Amino acid sequence: MAEVLVYVDHVDGAVRKPTLELLTLARRIGEPVAVALGGGAADTAATLAEHGTVKVLTHDAAEYAEYLVVPKVDALQVAYERVSPAAVLVPSSAEGKEIAARLALRIGSGIITDAIDLEAGDEGPVATQSVFAASFVTKSRVSKGTPVITVKPNSAAVEAAPAAGTVEALAVSFSEKATGTKITGRTARESTGRPELTEAAIVLSGGRGVGGAENFALIETLADSLGAAVGASRAAVDAGWYPHTNQVGQTGKSVSPQLYIASGISGAIQHRAGMQTSKTIVAINKDAEAPIFDLVDYGVVGDLFEVVPQLTEEIKAR
Ligand code: FAD
Questions:
Q1: Which of 41, 77, 142, 291 lies 20 to 30 Å from 59 when distance is taken between CA atoms?
Q2: Confidence (pTM)
Q3: For ligand 1, what atom is nearest to the CA of residue 250?
Q4: Partners and quaternary state (predicted)?
Q5: pLDDT tens figures, 57-93
């Protein structure tokens, strides 16, 4: 069976969920060989083997933490040349997309970004993408070189598949460009204790209807009762009620959770662009004619200041 190279996103050896989802998809098109880089890389092996990885290629060097993405691209290219895979899969984070694009350029391959599904095809893996503000779903495949594909978080359910994975060290010598851009400082974001917006299984967003920064506490309380992340429409962000890092939409983040609850959001096309691929969509809006009701699975016509606290109470009681 052909081998598929999977780039591992991890934090000090803890594998992030989008990589485990990627492994589920990778197994549809071949045998996953993972590439884990940086501090704790070897510690990823046990988790990766539980999810069907037949081999983990690891390398650690200070350069991965000290410089922007090029050292990682250098290492992924070494792994690519060693394995000659049928495809290279990378999680669709901002960093992942840069790594994938640089690798594709170096190896002369076509690239597909932000896939939401993958299947095996006669002429190589077929990727599904959601395009034009999620108005269309396309299926495409790379027609030149080894397919390099980035896959959005929440595109597949994580499935365990124990494998007898081996761990091998990669020998990487960095290119001249690897040390071109040095990271001069890192500022940790204050932790809210909530899941990362783009990876969360449940996202609750508030819009102009929330009416003020202080009222976002309503959304946050409901979010915490569900273990959800909190998002906001651009109107709420532009009003200074919620941070820009939490904006959902065309000029914000793209989310694709199992459940998306929009409160006080009208459903403008630019907002839909960032959430329309959510599996189940619920809207709470006092205007029965609001466009968001055209795309919801469940709609509540009502005042969010009445509905949201009732919902929170009900969920806490269970
Ligand atoms: P509104 O459209 O004002 O809707 C507020 C809704 O709240 C209404 O439907 C109202 O009925 C309801 N409401 C009011 N009070 C209550 C209540 N008490 N209870 C229940 N419901 C209530 N928007 C984004 O969100 N993300 C983007 O990334 C984005 N990018 C953009 C990029 C461009 C180039 C442009 C031009 C626009 C972009 N926008 C984006 C803006 C977008 O067009 C809309 O203006 C915005 O999404 C509206 O936000 P909203 O739904 O919160 O506000």
A1: 142
A2: 0.86
A3: 28
A4: Heterodimer of an alpha and a beta subunit.
A5: 999 999 999 999 999 999 999 999 999 999 999 999 9
